[in-house]
Amino acid sequence: MLINYKDADGKIIELEVSDEIGTFYLESVEAEKKNDRKNSRPDRHTLLSTFIYEDARYFSDSTDLLADLIESDAINHAMSRLNKRQQYLICKCFLEGWSYTDLAALEGKDESAIRHAVNRAKQKLIKFLK
User: In whole angstroms, how far apart are CA 78 and each of 15, 16, 117?
Assistant: First the structure.
C-alpha cells in the first residue's frame, strides 16, 4: 500500500508499507482529525473556573450556579408545565448527566427516539421560559 507522509520539514514523501501498517496509519490520521475537530471549539469545552474575572463575587468558588438555577421560580414553573415523561427526560439528561445511549439502553428504546424526545422537551421548556 502506498501512503503519503508529511515529514517535519513539510515535505511529502510517498512510502510503500504493508496493508496492516497502512490501514493503521490511515485510521490514526482520521482519529487525530476527529479529535482536533472536537477540540477546535474551546467555547464548548472551557470550564468556568478557568476564566479570570475582575469582580470575583459573581462566580466565587462557593457558588453552585446549577443549584441556584434549578431553584429559580421560572425554571420550576416551566418544568411544571411539561408532562411527567418530559420532566423525567430533562432531569435525566441535563441534571443527572445521562447520555441518550444510556437512557435508551435503560428503557429498551432506540437512541434516536430518546434524542428526539429530549429535544422536543427541551424546545417546549425553552418556549415556556420565553
Answer: 61, 62, 17
| Cell 476564566, residue located | 51
- How would you label 80-115 residue by residue, b for 16+ Cβ within 10 Å and e otherwise? eebeeebeebbebbeeeebebeebbeeeeeeeeebb
What is the three-class DSSP state of 5?
strand
Q: Which residues contact 120 (CB under 8 A, 6 or more apart)?
A: 86
CATH number for the region 63-129 comes to 1.10.10.10
Q: 87 and 79 in contact (C-beta within 8 Å)? A: yes
Q: What are phi and psi of 3, to 5 degrees?
A: -130, 150
Domain ranges within the chain, ordered by starting residue: 2-45, 63-129
| pLDDT tens digit sequence for 14-49 | 888 888 888 888 888 888 877 766 666 655 666 666
